[in-house]
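Here is one chain, start to finish.
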Amino acid sequence: MTVATGVGSMPGEDFAEALRTVLGELPDLPYLPELPARGAVAAMTGRTLAVVAELGFDLQPAGWRLTDAPGIDHRRARSLLAQDLDVLEEQTQGYEGELKVQVAGPWTLAATVERPRGDRLLADFGARRELAQALAEGLRVHLADVKRRVPGARLLVQVDEPALPAVLAAQVPTASGFGRHRSVDLPRASEALGWVFDAVLASGAVPVAHCCAADVPIGLLRGAGAQAVSLDLAVLAAASYDELGTALDAGERVLLGVVDSVDPVRRGADRQVVEKVLRLLDMLGFDPEEVAPRLVLTPACGLAGATPGYAREALALVRTSASALSGG
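Its structure:
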């Protein structure tokens, strides 16, 4: 059976209400929402740094920076995550089934977080290695905490890597804006991803790699240990279709972003979403009935930029579309 979920972010600042929406609209695969409107401590990078073990960070005008000890904003990020997990525990009493949580991946963090003396961690081989390993270790602790709070959950861990294609293509700008950081070769890129995916597997969870760029390196992500991939169907480059087909042929799950993540001019219908998915499967040469159980439908990306009303509509639309695709 095809199911539906969300990518990660939701609009607004009321976490309890956002979680109620997710649990109500996505009963088969809910997720722990992120609410960037609450500030940098609640956005993707700050949320993940709250998970990272041992290292300290603080928030500067230019963004997050590695420090010798956690700054006040880093401590706030950790406190906010703990509060959100309290709410998750309260609202999921007795829940049994799949549950998805999200973290930023090691390369997106390296391309986002600054070194103590400026510029991105991406420029420092030792620092980016230490960050990836600290992320992996922190994930083990975080996932154990989630499983303790929701003991009936089977966890999927979505590792968000929106910056990975830019890292591989030497397209991440330096602090001056006049240069670009050197590209990272594939073996090193795979190694850091592998530490994170291995930590997820060791925690008894399923590692999912998400990237909403056009040139998603599906083969690299799968080779590093991802057991499912999540992508935006509307922007996916044709060159990635073969690797997408290989993943489906191998029996792996694919999360397809098929619904607008911001309020569209015209509202879509589940019939249109289903037709879009069927065209893709026909192009790849797959029988819909055969692969439908391995498909998960999602919005194209996070819903932080949507109105609260449309965010609820988008989640409902992916749910009804998944049901229709399964013949429900």
